[in-house]
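Hey,

Quick one before I head out. I ran the complex with zinc ion overnight. Inputs first:
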Amino acid sequence: MKTKYSLGDVAYRVATSTDQWWDVCPDCIGQRKWFAVLPSGEELFFRCPTCERANESLGVVSEYEAGGSVEAVTIKSIEVISSDSLVSERYNSAYYLGDMYDSREEAAAALPAAIEELKIHLEESRAQSLARKKKDRVGSMASHYLRQERQALKDLDAARRGLAREAAKG
Ligand SMILES: [Zn+2]
């Protein structure tokens, strides 16, 4: 079967990439804590749930930026993949025919749309994750408050036992 490209040919593909970087957490402004004052005057601190990772608030959140470039690909292997409805070609075990271009110019022309598509995808998952965190804010604060309270009770208990030991000695 004749394939579009042959072994040794050079074709071009659009390679999109995601750069990750860190930005100051929009909710705690890098303070890593939320501070709340109850009407009774009691002051509470919570680890910021927005930038919390592995039980520690970091003060930063990850941001992603879509990028991309045109890559020249030398064809080293060709597979013809067929199912009931379609036949496609895969090159170098990774790239499908629909993503390959004859010239650098053609690939460059397709690049902005590919980056735009990735950008939309990144923005969607960012919005979803933010919405999830905002929805769970009250839950995060409540569980953090309970953890703090349990720890305070434990500390109190340990202090009491320490005092009792001291009293027994004296
Ligand atoms: Zn934060």
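The mean pLDDT is 89.

Talk tomorrow,
K.
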